[in-house]
Amino acid sequence: EAGVTQSPTHLIKTRGQQATLRCSPISGHTSVYWYQQALGLGLQFLLWYDEGEERNRGNFPPRFSGRQFPNYSSELNVNALELEDSALYLCASSRRGTGYEKLFFGSGTQLSVL
Amino acid sequence: SQQGEEDPQALSIQEGENATMNCSYKTSINNLQWYRQNSGRGLVHLILIRSNEREKHSGRLRVTLDTSKKSSSLLITASRAADTASYFCATDGRYSTLTFGKGTMLLVSP
Questions:
Q1: Which of A17, B64, B88, B101 is the 20 to 30 Å CA partner of B58?
Q2: What digits encode the pLDDT tens for the residues B39-79?
Q3: By the CB < 8 Å criterion, does A104 face chain B?
Q4: In which band, very low, low, confident or very high, does the pLDDT at B3 lie, cut at 50, 70 and 90?
Q5: Burial class (CB in 10 A: 0-12, 13-18, 19+), B34
Q6: Digit-coded pLDDT (tens) for A6-42
Q7: Which residues of A touch B99 (CB under 8 A)?
Q8: What string of DSSP letters covers B38-84?
Q9: Do the Cβ atoms of B84 and B76 come closer than 8 Å?
């Protein structure tokens, strides 16, 4: 069984640009979660998608957005990049309604904003 | 803000020793989980303990939960160099998903 896959592995952008990060969940999982892991700050919850709908979002500005496609894969878009957006972005998936029980994580996208 | 807070922030031990990490949280929970992260990669689920459980074992891992003190501990017995990683506790709470602490960095030296 393939795990959660994220692309790209690394992404380098400059301030003001836009970044698009992609995630494919484990087959059969309908929920996708995005987390930001900045140095020294632990994992911060960003967004939760299930069945194509945004179910909840963390305390992040609107320039962080995303979507979930009919095949349950997901995109995270970060507009107007700022230096402090540099972080490891982790995607996780779960079966519907089991996000409290266990998350399966991808290896992440390391975003560097110069 | 973080729901769970791990302690210590960093722990350095020798192979064969036991490693104990603690997690404190603020609000009521249904369950608490521990995850492991190797070198800034994805997290891997280790163990889940429910609020009505006090102790749980999985291989060399032992987790305890004290809901009256809102705290949990993760014990890794007979540590190996391969156990070197960051360990995070996670609780269900805000945002209808898991909230993670900042983690404990464990270094196990041969």
A1: B101
A2: 878 999 999 999 999 999 999 999 999 999 999 999 999 99
A3: yes
A4: low
A5: buried
A6: 999 999 999 999 999 999 999 999 999 999 999 877 8
A7: 45
A8: STTS-EEEEEEEETT-SEEEETTEEEEEETTTTEEEEEE-S--GGG-
A9: no
Cβ atoms A107, B43 nearer than 8 A: no
- Average pLDDT, whole number, for chain A? 94
Chain B CB contacts of A100 under 8 Å are 30-31, 92, 96-98
CA B96, CA A56: separation in Å to the nearest integer?
8
Partner-chain residue, chosen from A99, A107, A108, that has the shortest CB–CB distance to B98: A99
To test the contact with chain B by mutation, choose from A35, A41, A43, A60 the residue with the greatest count of B C-beta atoms within 10 A, namely A43
In chain B, residues with a C-beta closer than 8 Å to the C-beta of A106 are 42
Contact at CB, B42 and A106, closer than 8 angstroms: yes
B10-33 pLDDT per residue, tens? 999 999 999 999 999 988 888 999
Query: How far is it, in rounded angstroms, from Cα A36 to Cα A86?
Result: 9
d(CA B4, CA A88): 20
Nearest-angstrom CA–CA distance, B27 and A53: 28
